[in-house]
Each structure stands twice: as structure tokens, then as C-alpha cells.
User: Fold these one by one.
Assistant:
Number 1:
Amino acid sequence: MNAMLRDIGRVPVIIGGGIAGLMTALRLAPRPVIVLAKAPLQTEASSAWAQGGIAAAVGPDDNPGLHFADTLAAGDGLCDAEVARGFTSAGPAAIETLLHYGVRFDRDAAGALLLGLEAAHARRRIVHATGDGTGKEIMRALTAAVRRTPSITVLEGVEVRRLMVADGTVSGVLAVSTSGAVLLPTSRVVLATGGIGGLFLHTTNPRGLFGQGLALAARAGAALADLEFVQFHPTALAAGGHPLALVSEAVRGEGAILIDETRARIMADVPGGDLAARDVVARAVWRHLTAGHRVFLDATAALGANFARHFPVIATACAAAGIDPATQPIPVRPAAHYHMGGIAVDRQGRSTLLGLWACGEVAGTGLHGANRLASNSLLEAVVGAGAVADSVAVTPPGRNEPQIFAGVPAAADPETVRPILSRAAGVVRERDALETSVAALLPLAGSDKPVADPALVALMISVAALRRRESRGGHFRSDFPLSDVATTERRTLTLATALQAAREIAR
Ligand SMILES: Cc1cc2nc3c(=O)[nH]c(=O)nc-3n(C[C@H](O)[C@H](O)[C@H](O)COP(=O)(O)OP(=O)(O)OC[C@H]3O[C@@H](n4cnc5c(N)ncnc54)[C@H](O)[C@@H]3O)c2cc1C
């Protein structure tokens, strides 16, 4: 595969084969689309790893208004209220859509959907499948639906390295596979490339997800939003290699407790205890670790021999690391888990660059504000994909010709960036470390080396974290520990403004 593919008919190109990308493609059917995914479907996508489920107000005691209120409370004053209302209202229809595509959610003996409860939800509203294997089941069903839809062409093992722009609009996609480089002319591109966990040393995400979509969008000229808001999950399995397996909040929901090596409870004096908000628990675990302790999640009394029946995926991950959670406390640590920020998009998923849409974790819709409510991200992926598809469908193809590309950027490598970003923009942040990070990342981001794109994204996150001189949701500054509740606006950054700010900081 090389040079320019002129015969593809300028169909929309969807980059990413997780739930957001596949749902966009299905919703656009029978209109022809191309889906590009750098790894085979069902691999290297957070979607396939989602455990808890998808939040939707479908229970008899629930309604979208309650779901909306919980979402706003978690977002700590920074959600876009109208966006949050739209997503939460669309929850029940999203479940219907997934059922239509063949997803087999867990049901009770009478056939009603079983609903789980997660932290900060006022009602049981987490729709799940095979216990803690929800993402895998959704991806199974969507992949099968995509494979039997003739209008969808899926190209696996194809990595997008650049978006082409001509006259201020998207004109093509520059991608690379084992057969070489290819330029796909198109004026309609949907980015559905997932999160940024792979930019950190410790993450629950597939390591190959390190914000490539953000780099593609920023370099093409689109604005990014809310970049400083990264959610660190407090209980990743601190054993068994990278990425770290997730030990879901639901385990604490069943009564498991956080202890240290002396068996002292570490959340005993914290309001909310073991089920306090995710960022509160993450900071407590982090502080205990940095004080030289070890932290464990002890489910031996609460679940004991029932552990594997309740949490088969987690039990398997523990067994692989040589731990039996029925009889032994599970070693845990915080890990980068979810990015609330992303490509700034409007309610149709349109970015600030003509011809570029985004959905799923890579999109900054305004749904999550400073902190994501558990299980709202799969909802965002499904509902956001629908909005994007509807918008793409009514946008006629443009006639811009992409320029012939001079050279193809090397495959990105985030290795150098991980320790820099982890030190500066982890669970606890402060000015000196962030400024050091900016100074180290600026020359890397401007180079033509494999580190350039990951460094650029890490740089933009560091600049955004420096600019927010308060603590809010997933963003905690030890030098500004209080929330500035008067601040309610979302903050966007472009490549140009981030580089300018970085040069001033590094001077
Ligand atoms: C362990 C774990 C558990 C979770 N549990 C839950 C849960 O219970 N409920 C919930 O709501 N959320 C959960 N989340 C979050 C949720 O899974 C994700 O936010 C969501 O699945 C993201 O979907 P997506 O389609 O946007 O991206 P992904 O599913 O991550 O897919 C990204 C796709 O983009 C492709 N890609 C990336 N870069 C390129 C490129 N340059 N070129 C071509 N392709 C590219 C990847 O190969 C992949 O196909 C969990 C996340 C993790 C990691």
C-alpha cells in the first residue's frame, strides 16, 4: 500500500476501532465508510477492557434527571450542563441500540436487566454483561455487526500519522501499514482514538493508547479542551506487569477495604471511607505510598471464596500475578485511567477544524467536567458516536485535494515522555514539577523524532495543568489545594497557544 488512493470516493474516514468508532460506522450505514484501526478489532482498545458497565437511567426507581444530577455533582462545577442533560437523557435509548446490535447484557430470572451500583450514583443504573466483562461483550457484538455490514470497510493494522488540511478544512489522512504509507483523500474524518493512559508509567489503559488522536488534531489546527483533567483510578493491581489490571470500585462496593502492610485501614478517617470519590481515594492511596507504605485491597472478609464468582476478570488478573484474592490482600496503586479532556467538540461532535469530528474518550464534549462519573464513558462513546454520525451524514463531501506528502512521520514512541509526565502531572501536581516538565518536553515536541507527538500531548497537558491554579476533580495542585468555585468555564488550548505559553515558561 503506498501513494494516494484516489478511488475511495472521498467517503468518511473513521480513525479508531473501539466502541466509539464502530458505533459511528454502524450508525452511518448504509452510507459507505472506512474504519482505520492500528490494531486488530477487539485488541488495544479500552473498550474491550471496560469492566463495570454502562450508566443509563433504566431502573424503575430512576430517571435521566437523577442521572444528570449525579453527573453534574461528579463534574465539580465544570460540566457543560446542556451537554450532560443530552447524554444522560439518551442513556435508555443507547441501551436499546446496543441490544439491537446483539449485546447480551446480564438479566435476572424474570428477564429484566440487572443493574449495578457504583460510587456517586444515587441509583442502581450500571448495565453490565458477563459480570465484569461488559466491554468485551459489547465489542464482540459490535464487531460482528460491523463485519456483516457491507458498507463498512475496516482496515486493521493501519496507523494514522497525520491529518492533511487544505484551505482550512480536512483534505486527507496519512496512514501507514506494514505495506507502506497511504494517503486517503477525504474531507470528513472522525477521530475515535481513545485515551492517553499510555503517556504515564502506570496506567490501566492499553499501553498503545497515548493520545495520538490529540496530537493529530492539534497539529491539524483543532482546539483541545480540559486537558488537565486526568482521572487516576485508586486501585490498579500493583503486580503482574504493564499495563496494570484494574481492580474495580465494585470490589469496594462489595465491602473490600483499603489497608496497609500493618493491616491499618487507610480510609478510616476520610469522609466517605473506602467508597469516597475516586480522586479522594486515589490521593489517599498515593500519599500513603509516598510515605513509604504499601497499600492493599482486602476482600478476604467481604468476599472470600466468592471473589472469583463475583469478579472473574479481576480474579484471573490476580491469579496471573500469583495472588489469591480469596485469602490474600491485593496490592494496589493509583494509575492513569481516563481522560476527561480531549478534542473540543460541539454537541454534534464537530471540532473547531472544518471536516473533523471526534467521539469517545478522545473527545472533550463537556460531559465529564473535572471528573467522570463512573460508567459514563461508555455512554459518551455510544451517544457521542450517534451525534457525530448524524452530523457527518448531512455534511456533503468537499473537493479539496490533499497535498502530496513530503515525508511520513516515524512511528511515535512515548517511552521518554512517561517518566516526565508521571512526575509532573500525576495524582498530585505542583508548579515547579510542571514547569520542569514543560522545559523538558518543549524541545522534544518540536523535534522530528518518534517522541515528538507524545511529547506534544504531554506538553499541552502540562501547560493546561499549570494554568489551572486550583484543585478540582481529577486535577489536584498541592500549591493550590482549594477549589476556585467561581471558575466555571472550560478551557481550550491550541497548538499555537500551548507552544507560546511553553516558550514563556521555559525561558
Ligand atoms: C480497564 C478499564 C476499565 C474500564 N471500565 C469502564 C466501565 O466499566 N465503564 C465505562 O463507562 N468506562 C470504562 N472504561 C473507560 C472506557 O472503556 C473508555 O473510555 C472507552 O471504551 C473508550 O472508547 P473509545 O472507542 O473512545 O476508545 P478505545 O476503545 O480505546 O479505542 C481506540 C481505538 O483507536 C485506535 N487508534 C488509536 N490511535 C490510532 C491511530 N493513530 N491510528 C489508527 N487507530 C488508532 C486503537 O487501535 C483503538 O481501536 C474503562 C477503561 C479501562 C482501561
Note: DSSP finds 15 helices and 19 strands in the chain.
Number 2:
Amino acid sequence: MEHALVSEELGRSPFGHFVFNCQAPDAGNMEILMEFGTAKQKTQWLTPLVRGDIRSCFSMTEPEYPGSNPVWMATTAVRQGNEYIINGHKWFTSAAEGSAFAIVMAVTDPKAEPHRRASQIIVPTNTPGFKHVRNIPCMGHTGTDWASHAEIRYENCRVPCENLLGEEGSGFAIAQARLGPGRIHHCMRFIGISERAFDLMCSHAARRELAPGDKLGSRQTVQNWIAESRAEINAARLMVLQAGWTIDAKGTKDAREEISLIKFYVANVMMNVIDRAIQVHGALGISDDTLLSLFYRNGRAARIYDGADEVHKTVVAKRILRRYGLELH
Ligand SMILES: Cc1cc2nc3c(=O)[nH]c(=O)nc-3n(C[C@H](O)[C@H](O)[C@H](O)COP(=O)(O)OP(=O)(O)OC[C@H]3O[C@@H](n4cnc5c(N)ncnc54)[C@H](O)[C@@H]3O)c2cc1C
């Protein structure tokens, strides 16, 4: 809850979370190192990460397999003596360029039941065989460093077995533990972005004249957008805070429905508000002279990462239908 509230304020600026060193994917990596890391892993990786001396990335999604089905992937980590040998192809490993280490999701036991097949392993990015293929151009921007999404190949990457996070086969469980609070952070950041876009929309509507003395904000269409945006942002914030409260009071597992509800709802509220703000600004809204185009470009991905809208809607609906006697798998 505390970080949720801070996250909204930080979200108003694209640099907010970075300035306070609580940006994705580092914040999530800090959380899982804190919860599942050994004392040695904490000293070696968590302390410098929290201090802001190094950055990190999280390498789970693969181009050839659906990220929406996290138990189906091809990257393997084979134990040989005291080492794991990792081979695989990942992409959208955000902020990999310049990171000191990646937390890699890899199959350690292909014969185990699906949710116990994979493990998470810390791979320093200077390990021989860690190949940064490229930063993937997204919506016309390739980005660098922390503002990029990388394609990575792991080619016979050897790391000591002590780099295993948690126990072998717990990769899926750790990913779930990471994503619950992570979605609260993201959603509150989305609300900060929505508030900033809302401010820009209202100030432009109050300032821009369609004819001398005839303000844009006098048009009912614009007033509707302002009122609808205000209602949607207020509703979204309360939903996120309720989900945050449920995580704190009952744990991530019991907040599963609330977490999925906010993830798709708030991402769409943010996109609606940004879209209306762009429309109010006219050509200026499309230009890079305001923050709106950056928000729009980056915001679109929010309906895909950390679970696509459709996946979260299915999670919610299945749980509701279960209460009506319909069990779906
Ligand atoms: C900006 C950005 C940053 C990212 N950062 C990271 C990162 O740091 N590390 C990392 O490992 N990954 C990262 N990802 C990847 C992200 O986690 C995946 O994109 C996401 O899990 C979806 O997987 P996919 O892209 O393979 O789409 P797929 O799983 O192939 O799904 C494609 C589409 O199919 C639909 N769909 C999927 N499942 C269902 C369903 N059950 N019912 C109905 N429709 C469905 C959805 O519309 C979905 O968008 C990032 C992605 C983006 C866009």
C-alpha cells in the first residue's frame, strides 16, 4: 500500500521511478531476491541493486512461445557438476543493456508437472554465452540502456548452481510472487500517468481558443471527456488501493481476482485518458512537444505485459463462474 501511494506520484514523471530506484524490472527483482535469495545472493546482487550501483533484468518471455502460457518454454538449464548450463532464446528482456545480471527462467526438469518444470537462475551478463542480440525497435523507437527491450541468446551459459533462486522447480511460483505486487506498482504508476494526462487535457481545454474568447473547454464533448476521465481515474484508484489492501491483509493468492481486475481495467483507463488528452491537443498531442505521445507509445504495451487483458479477464470470469458451479480449466 505504501509503495502504491508513492508509485502514483512518481508515475507523473517518466523518470519518477528511476530517480527513486524502484522501476521495473529492478523493483521486482529486488523483491524476489529479498524473499527467496540466499545470504550470499543478497550480498552479491541485492545490496548493490538496492544501492543503485547496478541494474538488472528479468528474462522469461521467448519469441517462439506464448508468454501468456508461462509453463511452456524452451530455455533449459542442465545441471553438470556444480554448474547449470543454460541454453535458450529470450526477448523483451527489458533494460538488459547495461544490466549486471539477468534473472532467467529456464526449464530444469522437463518431466515434472508443468508448474514445477522451470527454475529462476541468476546469470551475470558478463557470463560467456550471454549474447545481447539487439534492442528491439518498438513503435519507431529502439531505445538504449534502461529504456530498451532486448533480444538475448543464452548459448551454453555456465553459472554455479548456487545462482539458483529459491528451490529447483519453483520458477513459476516465484514469478507469481513477483507479479502480484508488481501489478499494483504498475497500476498506480498508470494512475499517475492518467493524472498527468488529465492535467494537460484540462489546462489545454481552459487555454486554447477556437475563436477569439471562445475556449475549447466550453464544448460539451470536451466537458464529457473531462468528466468521464475524472470518474474513471477515481474509480481505478480505489480499485487498485483495494487490491493493495487485500494483498497486505490476506496475501497475494487471495488477491488474485482483484489483481487481475485492476491490471486490465486501469491499463484501459490510462489509454482512454491519454487518447482523449491527445484529441483535445489536436496536432500538438501527436507531436513530441508534450509528454502525451510518449505516454501513448509506452502505455499501449500495458495491455500486454504482465498478462494481456484477455488473460486477466479469463482469470476473473473463471473465478466468478466457479462460484456459480461452473468449473473451467
Ligand atoms: C514493453 C514490454 C516489456 C516487457 N518486459 C518484459 C521483461 O522484462 N521480461 C520478460 O520476460 N518479458 C517481458 N515482456 C513480455 C511480456 O511478458 C509478454 O509480451 C506477455 O506475457 C505476452 O506474451 P506474448 O507477447 O508472447 O503474447 P502471446 O502469449 O503470444 O499472446 C498474444 C495475444 O494473444 C491473446 N491471448 C493470449 N492468451 C489468451 C487467452 N488465454 N485468451 C484469449 N486471448 C489470449 C492476447 O491478446 C495476447 O496479447 C514485455 C513485453 C512488453 C510489451
Note: The first helix runs from residue 2 to 11.
